[in-house]
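Regression test attached.
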Amino acid sequence: DIQMTQSPSSLSASVGDRVTITCRASQGINNYLAWFQQKPGKAPKSLIYAASSLQSGVPSKFSGSGSGTDFTLTISSLQPEDFATYYCQQYNSYPYTFGQGTKLEIK
Amino acid sequence: EVQLVESGGGLVQPGGSLRLSCAASGFTFTRYWMSWVRQAPGKGLEWVANIKEDGSEKYYVDSVKGRFTISRDNAKNSLFLQISSLRDEDTAVYYCATAKTCRDWGQGTLVTVSS
């Protein structure tokens, strides 16, 4: 199975900051990488697919990059509604696997 | 607007079974792979299974192979997950999602395995 490792596991930031979350795959996954946001008690929300393609309706403050094994999610100008847990997921090969999550908290 | 509504969760004893359902609307169901993802209490997301548009291909995470069966009824825009031989570690919220990329998600249905 492909292991997905996110870093950091938690992150404190302030409103207005720009943050970057990293996701590393244990083997190459081409660009078959998605990012999700989840708030407490809610279903996840898809932000990005194919490593860098923004889902419809997702603000451009979210951006993704990378290919192969190393990927990043960048969130610019943090707003209170952006504080949540973020997950990456590979869908290159079965079984699909998620990273362990990165909890983004307000400093 | 895409809507996915899961149902069928509940409290079940170890070794028991349940059939989870996901009613889909607002998109052309027959054009999409469909997925199940679960989340144990306080834990991260775990991909469980997915099924091709016509049901001809199905894939599972190893921990549920032989115990869970994914299926779909395209005439009724519905996705199912038959879960059997349940274990404590199957306790989770089960979400259905559209496509391999899990573009849209339902609100989830809670399965609790406990004696």
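Expected vs. actual: identical. The first strand of chain B starts at residue 3 and ends at 7.
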